[in-house]
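Why this split exists: single-chain examples teach little about how molecules sit against one another. For that reason, every record in the complexes split bundles all components of an assembly together and asks for one structure covering all of them. Below is a record exactly as it appears in the raw files.
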Amino acid sequence: MHEITIDHLDDIARGAAILGTGGGGDPYIGRLLASAAVRDHGPVPLVPLDEIGDDAVVLPVAMMGAPTVMVEKLPSAEQVGLAARTLATYLGKELTHIACAEAGGVNSLIPVVAAAQLGLPLVDADGMGRAFPELQMVLPTLYGVRATPMSIADEKGNRGVLDTVDNHWAERLARSATVDMGCSAMISNYAMSGAQARESLVPGTLTLCAELGARVRQARAEHADPVASVVERLGGRTLFSGKVVDVARRTVTGFARGEAKLSGMDGDMGSEMVLKFQNEHLVAERDGVPEASVPDLICCLDHESGEAVTTEGLRYGQRVTVIAAPADPRWHTPGGIELAGPRYFGYDIDPVGVFA
Amino acid sequence: MRIGIDVGGTNTDAVLLDGRKVLASIKTSTTEDVTSGIVAAINGLQQQRAFDPAAVQAVMIGTTHFINALVEAHRLAPTAAVRLSLPAGASLPPMVDWPQRLVGAVSGRSYLVHGGHEFDGRHIAELDEGELRKAAEDMGQAGVRSVAITSVFSPVNAEFEARAAEIIAAELPDVAISLSHEIGRIGLLERENATVINAALRELAAHIVDGLAASVSGAGITAPLYLSQNDGTLMDVDFARRYPVATFASGPTNSMRGAAVLSGLDTCAVVDVGGTTSDVGVLRQGFPREATTDVSVAGIRTNFRMPDVLSIGIGGGSRVRGGAGDVTVGPDSVGYELTSKALVFGGDTLTATDIAVAAGRAGIGDPSLVAHLDRDLVRAALDKIAADVADVVERMRTSAEPLPVVAVGGGSVLLPDELADAGTVHRPENYAVANAIGAAIAQIGGEVDRVYAIEPGRREAVVEEAKQEAVDRAVAAGASPASVGIVDFDEVPIPYLPGNATRIRVKAVGDLQLGA
């Protein structure tokens, strides 16, 4: 894939929902926005991470806020472009590339909108290789890339530039501004050089999204098992197949935390799996024993269709297959674990790797 | 007494009820003009059991007419979509993801205007009345006859939609106006789509409703006429003129509701076996469980209330292939050609109906024409049908508790008396006209679906307030106050919103106040 055309967007959206690990927002709006932007401005060139020059100016863009708001107060391509332009102006630099902060959910597609709008190439990479709920949870944080200065823009044309003492503060202040902007804002942060991008981003993730989406689509057309095809591509394994028998949710400091209980079927008959989530799936326990956890990816897929099931969409009676896939190895370093391991989310366990 | 009529694509079924007792029932063919089929059905009831038309207290009709009109892109009015959202939302204009054929069929025009609300009720922008008047002028010149107005977060605050309607009505007094907050839920594109579909169907709705009313009054019946909605509740004819979209899924809903009444089970799985498909739904407290995901209608994403129904291609007309060891049933069907193609009618195609006759489960056509069928094949085909249906029922179950199964519809003879896990299959009397009975016994409902900011310690009060509002709405719509109860309650916290934002959905339902 050398460029992203309208024909790629369905697959990318479907794959991005899988890497969203239960969160990241419904990519439907993202797909429509990207498709409108590509229709207006033409296909977006996709550049492999290792082909960008050291002095490139790479800027990730993303949507911040509540997916529930985004499906009501629809963002516009101009708003995405505005966030990027605002930061470029503040930095006094000419942007050369747009990048993805996360490769899951709607934020895989917002950068396509930005790139099309600004007429810039998109780097085939992202800051996580998955979706995480907070802004500082990107690999560039581990490599000393500062989240700020960052820009935030609403649909009215309000813009803010934040410069914070660390990346956690960036999350905190940007979250407050997002609420005042009506809970759906576009942000641009982690401006980095080409050299920093090559060091700290996860390569090939947009291509990965497109491939995952295509696999699901093709497996269904051929009456093959889409879940198995996804597992194969991710180099992961199937944890559990079961039926959702209970979902408990509560909102804690603005995040939807909760647990879903699955009762096993087929080979897992007689066992139970509990998925613990905060927007994204964080821990999967089989019969009380953790079987996978962050930072690895825990994805809940519809048993038949292979479509990703979001934590918001989980409901009684769904038949799902839970799969786990290894996160980028850098997430398993001490710094990575500190940033996005189970303890950060309040679970007092060591991380459980997919093949542990 | 009341009369229930279900106008399906193939059959028009009618029943005469006294309370919940079936006095007469009839199946007739649906006619192209719909009304003559209804007249024939009412005459049929009259012949079966003479009744005084003046003694009929209400007539309830379920119809698939409007959804068919949309699918066939037939007789849709030139429609304009007005969205109050600027400066938000300009990149994804109304009808952005519609099949081009349908945009053409509604001569779709769209207008974006300043306005809309934030999630917490603040204004995104003030409503620009000048812009609206200019849009109205353009609509007038373009010959628009129906307008759909959608404002951002109107389920939270509908003031802008109401004001915009006043302004457009003042400029264009003859156009019909549909407001999104009365039609759909949170999710702007889906709600707007449903509203535009509704708007496009308004002229046809007026025409059809007039026809229905004429055919009922032509039979000497002066009682009020109601149409059944997707959720198993009723709307009066004025409501039906304004909200045709609310009838879209009334077919399966009526079957399910009828099954509940006939079987006396209010929590069960209902299998409605027709000619080409078996539709499986779940009743909870007598009402169909609703789909929680977006429902695509004719290729358009919408989010109005629809029952959660799973269909498989097994019905009376399903083709049966293979031998005892590798038999398949459906998903293709001979459909309306059953009476010429099935073996029992002298045809040359082995169908599920032939299997039922060969097994002695149904007395249709000439049984001698299937007497030669291999016994093992017949058994294998019935087992296959039972296994496939049992699998769908199992899928629809939401808890470990086994769900009783009620079978209705003309093809339900195909089902065994026992279904794996579910146990006995209930096959109530009058199963073939369950849909008409469902229409006849439909109730009146009221619903609230809104995002609430729940302050600490206020949850109980907020929940009570929402429930009361749903009850009030049901009563306002014509339910008898003493009979109204809450039938559905759902509470979902919304992530990333401050103030413990929680989406609450409550549905209250009561009996229609008759003869008031």
